[in-house]
Design goal:
- It is found in: Cell membrane.
- Its main location: membrane.
- The chain is mainly α.
- Helix content is about 75%, strand content about 5%.
- The longest helix has about 50 residues.
């Protein structure tokens, strides 16, 4: 997929999106610690001035997060849509120079799917890459480090929760990814039948094959629908599993954190900050898994597009163009001793043919 994106995405826009995302993550990671400081040093000690001071600092970080998020979304959307535009243009320029042999290798319905649906898949993953793929690992590492600094004992909870979550997500991906790949093939089938119905509508009506073609399209449509329902039903399991893991994590942190507070081993503010970091860790983990689910589908689309772009047309423009003679209207084109056979055929359809036009 990187080969498809290379040269079609602005490197400065990608760097800008990366920098904006780092600013957003830094801002989000600072807010829980500032909340802990307000609770520990402001609320607990009744220091109003300190609350105001840290509160204004939190507002500044919140505004910085909003501005950085807006900048990242703008650049990510612009870059991903620009990638889609260039891909569609390159594919179209390639297709219009195809000979009949190339159209025999890749069906027209598949070319339509590759120019539309496959490009959209790559656009979506490019958008996710500039958003979640950058944000999730930085947030995961940063939140884990800060949570450990707040209380290293409570971080042991993640050693139980994260492996269980990884197993569930791995199982979901194992069943969902092949179904995502199958959706592209089934989309090709729908486009093929739809195109045949439009181009051959007069013949279909003349031979009263309307009901047959309707049933044929309905079967393909039903097949695609069943596949889509199955894959998204599997993907839907991720959200209740994630909610369950979050609830278990909250219960564990509250239970063990409450004991630490009762033993005066942990301030209340640190527990609040730790719970926020725990949610950030789990959400980052989920974002990473979502990206990894959609990458194989986009990779399949990228391979299909690359197949089109790598196909060399047999129609070649002559290096030197010869002007037509002045008496061209009265000229005759002669074929003398012409042999011809179709690509891949063993027998010649013309042999030593002589003709004049």
């Amino acid at each position: 997929m990187l080969k498809i994106a290379r040269g079609r995405m602005s490197i400065w826009a990608v760097i800008g999106a990366f920098l904006f995302m780092i600013l957003q993550v830094i801002s989000n990671l600072n807010l829980p610690s500032l909340t802990a400081n307000i609770v520990n040093n402001g609320v607990a000690k009744g220091n109003i001035n300190y609350i105001w001071e840290v509160g204004l600092e939190m507002i500044a970080f919140a505004l910085l997060s909003v501005v950085a998020a807006a900048g990242n979304v703008f650049l990510a959307a612009r870059t991903s849509q620009g990638l889609g535009q260039k891909l569609r243009s390159d594919i179209y320029r390639k297709i219009i120079n195809f000979s009949n042999d190339e159209f025999d290798q890749i069906e027209t319905s598949s070319l339509i799917t590759r120019t539309t649906n496959d490009v959209v898949q790559i656009q979506n993953v490019a958008m996710m890459a500039l958003r979640m793929m950058i944000m999730a690992p930085i947030m995961l590492v940063g939140a884990s480090f800060l949570a450990y600094n707040k209380n290293h004992q409570l971080t042991m909870i993640f050693l139980v929760v994260l492996p269980v979550l990884a197993i569930f997500i791995g199982l979901i991906m194992r069943f969902a990814v092949p179904l995502f790949r199958a959706m592209q093939t089934k989309t090709d089938r729908i486009n093929l039948i739809f195109r045949e119905g439009l181009t051959g509508v007069r013949v279909i009506r003349a031979f009263r094959r309307d009901h047959f073609e309707q049933q044929r399209f309905e079967d393909a449509n039903q097949d695609y629908t069943k596949n889509a329902i199955k894959v998204f039903s599997i993907m839907a399991l991720m959200f209740p599993i994630m909610t369950l893991m979050m609830s278990v994590t909250n219960i564990g942190i509250t239970w063990f954190g409450g004991k630490l507070i009762a033993d005066f081993s942990m301030p209340v503010g640190n527990l609040i900050a730790f719970m926020t970091y725990a949610m950030q860790i789990l959400m980052s983990f989920m974002m990473l898994s979502m990206v990894f689910v959609f990458i194989p589908r986009a990779q399949a689309s990228a391979l299909r597009i690359q197949e089109v772009l790598a196909l060399n047309s047999k129609l070649k423009e002559p290096k030197t163009k010869t002007a037509l003679p002045a008496n061209f209207d009265h000229s005759q084109l002669d074929f003398q001793h012409v042999d011809y056979r179709y690509a891949g055929a063993e027998m010649q359809v013309l042999k030593k043919s002589i003709a004049g036009y």
